[in-house]
Amino acid sequence: MNREPRYESQATNHEPQDMVERTLIIIKPDGIHRHLAGEIIGRFEKRGAKIVAAKFMQISEGLARQLYAVHQGKPFFEGLVKYLSSAPILVMVWEAEGVIDMARKMMGATFGYEAEPGTIRGDFSSSRGYNLIHGSDSPKSAEQEINLFFNPDEIINYKLADADWLSGRND
Ligand code: RTP
Ligand code: MG
Known about the structure:
The protein has 171 residues and is an alpha+beta fold. It has a domain at 17-57 and 88-157: Alpha-Beta Plaits, CATH 3.30.70.141. It contains 8 helices and 4 strands; from the N terminus they run βααβααβααβαα. It has helices spanning 29-33, 37-47, 61-67, 77-85, 99-107, 120-124, 139-149, 163-166; strands at residues 22-27, 50-57, 89-95, 133-135. A 4-stranded antiparallel beta sheet has the order 2-3-1-4. The chain starts with 21 loop residues before the first strand and ends in a 5-residue tail after the last helix. The model has no long low-confidence stretch (mean pLDDT 92). The structure holds ribavirin triphosphate and magnesium ion. Ribavirin triphosphate (RTP) binds next to strand 4.
């Protein structure tokens, strides 16, 4: 029996395979401080999504403003910028078919106290603004948000060992 470990590199390029969708997911400061990063990542892993990039960072107010530019001028905007830039966050890119909508469903409604049980916010947040996780809400915002945090060569293309069991031949 061949027991040699398989060391060969799999990374070939930095484009999504077969046009599979990508989304930007951020574990917000409350998620890190409340020790929920593993729980949240575990849910994405178990769902079968693939992590292709990650950075643990504390962002500037300027970058938070860019991320949430669509909300500029709203009453909660300044508080949101302070919240996001006040402590470390974990910024990730996840890849799967339909992952943008799938992640939004996994996250639950914006306000924790309105989110359905079974969702990330519905299980762990009872707050309005401190809702643990950010996820891109459309293909256009996913592309913009991913570009805000990652260079193309920081996104790693590889095949999961169980990829053939995550999507059937008839999908
Ligand atoms: P996100 O962008 O973070 O994934 O959240 P979302 O789409 O569910 O909600 P969105 O409307 O885009 O709001 C962005 C974030 O701003 C904070 N927020 N606070 N106090 C308030 O009324 C209020 N409204 C929104 C939340 O942290 C929300 O996730
Ligand atoms: Mg949003």
